[in-house]
Design brief:
By secondary structure, this protein is an alpha+beta fold. It has a single domain, classed as 2-Layer Sandwich (Alpha-Beta Plaits), CATH 3.30.70. Helix content is 26%, strand content 32%.
């Protein structure tokens, strides 16, 4: 069953290109079950990554690679506050496809 994950970030001032370049350098071959991924700019220095996966199990299996990627740009990120740390991730399976 198709799954999605969404991770929210706030980038430190002056580090947005570093954040984007870290993602440009990712070897997409290490995530074969990822169908699509997009980074969207949601505001001033705020971004979300939205990934589409073949299944929740496939996404869970890719977590070590996702954490390794995060570690490559973690120093670019600001703490989001409220105990979240530098990311605010959510994920789940599709329950209704609208288009």
């Amino acid at each position: 069953m198709t799954a999605f994950n969404c991770v929210r970030f706030r980038v430190k001032p002056g580090r947005e290109e570093d954040f984007l370049n870290a993602h440009r350098q990712v070897d997409r071959g290490q995530w074969p079950a990822m169908r699509h991924a997009n980074i969207i700019k949601t505001g001033d220095r705020t971004y979300c990554i939205i990934g589409e996966w073949d299944s929740m199990d496939d996404m869970a299996a890719a977590r070590p690679q996702m954490v390794a990627t995060l570690d490559s740009f973690r120093d670019c990120l600001e703490d989001l506050g409220d105990g979240l740390g530098v990311t605010d991730p959510v994920s789940g399976t599709v329950v209704l496809a609208l288009k």
